[in-house]
Amino acid sequence: MIENLRQIAQQTAWTRRDFLRSAAGAIGYAATSHVSPLHAAVRQQGRKTVVVTFGGGARDVETFAPSGQENIPHLIQELIPQATFCTQVVNHGILGHYVATASLATGVYETFDNFALVAPNHPTVFEYYRKGLGRPPNDVWVIAPSNGFNRIGQSSGANFARGYGAPVILPKHLLNAALGEHPNRGAFNFLLQDSYEDPMSTPVLGHTDVPLSRLTDVLHLSVEDFTRHAQTLSSADELSVYVMRQLMRQFAPSLLWITLHDMDVAHAGAYSLYIEGIQRTDRLCGEIWRMIQNDPEYHGRTTMFILPDFGRDSDMDASGNGFQHHRTGDALSRTTWMMALGPHIRQNTTVNRPLDSVDLVPTLGALMGFQTPGAKGRTIVEVI
Question: Is residue 203 situated within a structural domain?
Fold first, then answer.
């Protein structure tokens, strides 16, 4: 069975490579790889890293296949030509969004219940970074989509020193606290859905204990300005990116991690909403990259990683529900991708060898200069 999974994963990688070659040919991108001349300068200045994860994967048929490329124009036309694109990243762990994202953040496949309100068992990349380089709390931030994620910034501490975690912001919870008894509160319900994955169909957020001081003291926004801006948005992920922009302005953190979650509306069973989630995520990835390029604190010194936590079920598997879920554990639900782009990253390059989801943490450590002794993955040498 493991060998069969490897074969399917490898075939998926080859298919993605061919899709991208055909797209690159159609739009005229160069096929040769090169290293940016800013490589040496970046090493001298000190690096910043932004990690964008998707809490909800998308299948190739709706993305990289010719039939789906219209849904990801920013990834295909704008970002991948500047990136090293890894076509075969396999998640061997539990396919639940919080536990899978925690595994990405620790470099170890976490094994806790996806719906348990617990911290990761192993040290996080945020702890490795802060302890290894002696960095203050405000130099690393996590922007997370739903309730369980509020513990992702700091491990349980059994195997690592306490107090080196990352502050975590949940924009939906912050908005919920800001709304209070807002007379038009119901109009914000689409921004307050805490999770699409919970089998009991989690309702919109009720009362939370999030202090509004995080809004005023951290983001330097008034309650009125925050809620007014939220009224102009079409999704919770847009709210997360807005919070990200504020953190960049206030603290210019060197390690910034954001998890987008809109495409996980697929669990509701509405294909059109799933496609809208893909299209919005694609657009926001392009927007984040432009934010980096337009900010003098980040321009010319920032590497951005983009990766889903895992995939979704195939239409051909009788035990699954196609695009709606990720419950089969088959090769398509486990095989995903990753891209890295930045001033020293090889452009328009594909890496087709098998990689593991937990390879991210040691790669971040090698890139930024800190040790990750508890991580089980291996450094992705093609992006260092």
Answer: yes
